[in-house]
Amino acid sequence: MLLGDDEVLVRGALAALLSLEPDLSVVAEASSGTEAAALAPAVRPDLAVLDLEMPPGDGLAAAAEIRARLGVPVVLVTRHARPAILRRALAAGVRGFVPKTTPAVRLAAIIREVHGGRRYVDPDIAAAALNERPCPLTARELEVLRATRHGAPVSEIARAVHLAPGTVRNYLSGAMAKLQAPTRHAAARTAWEQGWI
């Protein structure tokens, strides 16, 4: 399997624990989503286990690329299991979605299930997804909030999304009103917590 996680200690520990299983082996390790997607065609893994939050090029983007290019099953592990992310992961063809609190022995069993053609979604994440709040924001509002989340000033956001600064401010104001957030940063945090960005 291909294992991707930007945290060296976590990745190394997980690789060591999974390699203790007689029927599992880690053929490559990646420290970013971009690296995982680049490594996959060279190592041809049977399955990929990726951290959702790997920068740059997050685990979800890498999962979608690996699925599209190789058709191998992907299990995403995450510290922040937000319901909207689950929907996006399933739409990208991810076959397993588990929190990082999953014990290694259970993760090994999930990997076997997914490799065998089954899908696995953590029950708590699935239950939270049933109660998920619908996203009231437009695609453009989400786009500007995504850039805002990283602390970019309006002028930088405008350049990144190819809009005038005044238009960016209008989108931010609309998002703040819809989310009843006092600041654009609070709106971005709410959108992130909901898994919309």
Q: Please, could you describe this protein's structure?
A:
The longest helix is centred in the last third of the chain and has 15 residues, at 165-179. The protein has a 6-stranded parallel beta sheet. It has helices at residues 8-19, 33-43, 59-70, 83-91, 104-115, 123-130, 139-148, 154-161, 165-179, 184-194, and strands at residues 2-4, 28-30, 48-51, 74-78, 96-99, 120-121. The chain folds into 2 domains: 2-130, Response regulator (Rossmann fold), CATH 3.40.50.2300; 139-194, Orthogonal Bundle (Arc Repressor Mutant, subunit A). Strand 4, helix 4 and strand 5 (96-99) form a beta-alpha-beta unit. It is elongated. The chain has 10 helices and 6 strands, in the order βαβαβαβαβαβααααα. The model has no long low-confidence stretch (mean pLDDT 90). It has 197 residues and is of the alpha/beta class.
Question: Any key phrases for this structure?
Answer:
197 residues, Arc Repressor Mutant, subunit A, 10 helices, single chain, 6-stranded parallel β-sheet, elongated, 2 domains, Rossmann fold, alpha/beta
| CATH fourth-tier homologous superfamily of the largest domain | Response regulator
Secondary-structure element string: EHEHEHEHEHEHHHHH
Which oligomeric form is depicted?
single chain
The helix/strand class is alpha/beta
Number of domains: 2
The Cα radius of gyration reads: 18 Å
**Largest sheet: number of strands, sense, barrel closure:** 6 strands, parallel
Helix content: 40-55%
CATH topology of the largest domain: Rossmann fold
The beta-strand count equals 6
Compute the number of helices: 10
CATH class of the largest domain: Alpha Beta
How much strand content do the residues show? 5-15%
Distance between the termini: 28 Å
Describe the global form: elongated
CATH architecture call of the largest domain: 3-Layer(aba) Sandwich
- Order of strands across the main sheet: 2-1-3-4-5-6
Low-pLDDT segments: none
Please state the average pLDDT score: 90
